[in-house]
Amino acid sequence: MVDSSEQEVNKYIEERLASVIPALQEVALGNFKIQIPLPEKEDSFTELFVGLNLMIDDLSESDNSRRLAEGELLDSKKELEKKVEELERMNKIMIGRELRVIELKKEISDLKKKAED
Fold first, then answer.
1. Which residues of 86-114 are buried (b: 16+ CB within 10 A; e: fewer)?
2. In the chain, at which end, N or C, are there fewer CB atoms within 10 A of the end residue's CB?
3. 50-69: pLDDT as tens digits
4. Per-domain residue ranges of the chain
5. Residues ≥6 apart with Cβ < 8 Å to 43
């Protein structure tokens, strides 16, 4: 059987944790702007809530860094795609030039043979 003081403690714990759950749900959805309100009077949960707020700040910084890195990666990808397109275009030009040189060499060879005959 649970006495009334234990019930009060359990109720207090449940209320304190219940006040944090909505904020943690927001964080889980990616809202790192939220902060867990700290109690006016320091209690057993204050250190936990401060730690959670620090963790949320760290998650926010990590998310910002990730977004920045993704943007830089996308820019690099676009730049590489442009360079690949340019190289492919140059390759086609060079292949065409080489084919034309081969063709001209054959013509020269044929003309030399005709001239010798």
1. eeeeeeeeeeeeeeeeeeeeeeeeeeeee
2. N
3. 999 999 999 999 999 999 99
4. 4-116
5. 16
